[in-house]
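User: Show me a protein chain along with its predicted structure.
Assistant: Here is one chain, sequence first, then structure tokens.
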Amino acid sequence: ESQLLQGTIVGLTKTDVIINIGFKSDGLVSLNEFRDMQDVKIGDDIEVMVVEKEDKNGHLHLSRKMARASRAWQKIVDFYKTGEIVTGTITSKTKGGLIVDVYGLETFLPGSQIDVKPVTDYDQYVGKTMDFKVVKINEAIRNAVVSHKALIESDIEQQRTVIISQLEKGQVLEGTVKNVTDFGAFIDLGGVDGLLYITDISWGRVTHPSEVLENGQKLNVVVLDFDDEKKRISLGLKQLT
């Protein structure tokens, strides 16, 4: 019982589909389990699961729905192991996140895993089809947790690696002002932050960086220096004038 088997449709009644799986008697599957198939006909091959070898009426009880769920779960487990990307459709909102349909199975997308930026309005995602990474599975209760944020982070990480590998002194890059502080501003160079010190903003006197810069502003900067790890990148603005 509860194993996946290939069967062939050998008959149809008003309520059931009769399937031969090579046992001494044919099995029955409720016609309701075939709603997604337009046209069910004799001779079709179907994957089913044995629910009971003999139900109260002495019939071999089979399920296509359970077979599909089992097959879907196996795919999810495989994707979890390989780290491959799955596509799912967000079906509804739930406490603390969203429900995502992946191969017909419900998986959970926590609110913190939707985006790298905090999300307050979950409703805007319902009905959307997106890519996800399976980040956690519980085999015992067949429960999976997915993340969209993990994909964005790996994109940013790849971008970051490219920028860092090509970094050189004197290079001019486009950046976005991320955070203005008393001593300068942090500039996002596309997944990598650099620091533009107040003394490198302008040849003239600048009392506070916010006189010249604001968050979200795009500007060209020049790479003045960086450490061996390329963790600290010093940028200049006045050097371009």
